[in-house]
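Continuing the batch. This is chain 6 of the set; chains 1 through 5 are on the previous pages. Same settings as before, nothing changed between runs. Recording input and output for traceability.
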Amino acid sequence: MSGAPSTAVAPAGAPPTAVALDHVGVAARDLPPLLAQYQRLGFDLSPLAQQSGKRTPDGPVELFGSGNRCAFFRHGYVELIGIVDPTLYPNAVDQFVARYHGLHIAAFAMADADANLARLRAGGLAIPGVAYLERPVEAGGPIARFARLPFPDAPEGRVQLITHLTPELVWQDRWMNHANKVDALEALVLACANPAETAARFSRLTGLAVVPDPTGGFLLELPGMAGAAGPNAPVLRTQVRMLPAEAVARVLPGVVAPTLPFMAGMVLRTSDGNAAARQVLAGLPLREMPGGALLVPPEHAGGAAILFTP
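Output for chain 6:
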């Protein structure tokens, strides 16, 4: 494991803003039950990987106590994270699950880390520098590396910009054959005590303007960029909806926020109009939604509601 991070050359004309919703993360203290739920939902997960990184930009690379398995899609992915070694630095997972088990991570793809760092510092955020994280893609395998710009102390959870320095190592076809035919992460839905404050924070991090959401609260739309959320990712518009709790109940019926702010659910697109998902999810207490979408309640997805859309 090398302490010298890889660097990436930004594409010509890359904007100094976020370009796409890269991934969301579901946290649990114990990984095995969480993994079993997502496998029951038809996800093919990457191998277990224990994380490592620097706690400060100038610190040494060290092994963390957190580990993950992921469901990678053509566009974006879902991270399932927990504590795999309680004797090591928990990488904030302990803080996440003390609030609730469920979604705690929202990561936005950026194409130019240096330009985004400069923009955030110019906006008054005290970010010491680009943070680096790394993990083996599987036991004994090559090391995947990431460059991150986290929003300091965001009450919503781990909210960050990310560039994958080794995307070909993590988006591998061998663990992207999902029985439910999900091929894209499309949206994240948050319940907020003060949607305007959350919207301002997300707008400041991403460098993108928010607009009113039709159900109340605010909507952040990311324009998309080819290859931004996966080496073969298409240009896909993605969203974050920051809503008052009563509006979340209309978007994700039956979901009740245990506390605020709360990352309530995710929207995942399938490639076959939900045909495979209907078969895989048979037997679960699904809710039929407009347009043929299927809602899996949070108690069957690690505390995060999942809306499968055709």
